[in-house]
Amino acid sequence: MGLRRLTPEDAAAFRALRLDALRLDPTAFGRAWAEEAGKPLAWFGETLERAAIFAAEDATGRLLGMLAYQGDAMLKRRHIGHLWGMYVREEARGQGLGAALIAACIAHARGQVSVLQIMVGEGNPGARRLYERAGFQLYGTEPASLRMDGVDSATLLMFQRLD
Ligand SMILES: CC(C)(COP(=O)(O)OP(=O)(O)OC[C@H]1O[C@@H](n2cnc3c(N)ncnc32)[C@H](O)[C@@H]1OP(=O)(O)O)[C@@H](O)C(=O)NCCC(=O)NCCS
After folding, report:
1. Which of 20, 22, 33, 83 lies closest to 54, judged by CA?
2. What residues does each domain of the chain span?
3. Site to substitute for ligand 1 among 1, 88, 133, 136, most atoms within 8 A of C-beta
4. Could you say which of 4, 52, 77, 139 is the most buried, measured as most Cβ atoms within 10 Å of its Cβ?
5. d(CA 30, CA 36)
6. What's the 94 CA to ligand 1 centre distance in angstroms?
7. Residue 87 beta carbon below 6 angstroms from any ligand 1 atom
8. What DSSP designation does 39 have?
9. What gap in Å lies between CA 137 and CA 139, rounded to an integer?
10. In whole angstroms, how far apart are CA 161 and each of 2, 91, 128?
């Protein structure tokens, strides 16, 4: 099992993993599968340029999990980085891949930004615990943040200082 930063050349494997995540665990993400399923391969390649996306892979090179780091683009928010898209394939969970992906993103973010933010659904206590163990703390809640099949759910906002 290895962990590495993906490059635009990994666009096809990244696309497959990302679309599996949105399709198999729709309640865990703000984005819907339908929003990204029709995007061309080049769009996924551009995402890999815009964000630093770390992935875990098995011995054959199949991607097992991912986490993205992206610096905020706004001038007054350039000290803030965002983690998004955390996903580990079901068969690979519970082995520390999630924790290793967070550690890789934090190491990458250190020295670039002073604050890291991550969002997690209120109905996802496992992910929240994982983020707390990695140093994140809750700073707020966005009520009625996502609406799926007519049902609203809140999003928990978490952050940690790196300096
Ligand atoms: C949340 C997620 C990324 C965690 O990945 P992971 O590689 O299992 O993470 P780790 O192994 O580092 O730690 C996971 C925790 O689950 C426990 N665990 C053990 N076996 C497990 C299993 N079969 N499946 C899931 N979790 C398991 C671990 O002991 C650990 O402790 P905790 O229950 O106190 O939190 C993964 O479950 C996932 O992709 N879920 C669906 C998508 C999702 O919720 N993404 C987060 C969006 S904010």
Report:
1. 83
2. 2-161
3. 88
4. 52
5. 12
6. 5
7. yes
8. S
9. 6
10. 28, 32, 17
Query: C-alpha angle 113/119/124, rounded to 5°?
Result: 145
Tokens representing 137 are 């703390």
| Residue 113: both structure tokens together | 């930004």
Position 1 scores a pLDDT of 79
Residue nearest to atom 21 of ligand 1 (CA): 94
32-55 pLDDT, tens digit per residue, is 999 999 999 999 999 999 999 999
Residue 129 phi, psi dihedral angles, 5° rounding: -60, -45
93-151 pLDDT tens trace: 999 999 999 999 999 999 899 999 999 999 999 999 999 999 999 999 999 999 999 99
C-alpha 143 – ligand 1 centre gap (Å): 24
Give the three-state DSSP class for 100.
helix
pTM above 0.90, yes or no: yes
Render pLDDT for 65-81 as a digit per residue (tens, 0 to 9).
Answer: 999 999 999 999 999 99
CATH of domain 2-161: 3.40.630.30
Beta carbons of 114 and 163 less than 8 angstroms apart:
yes
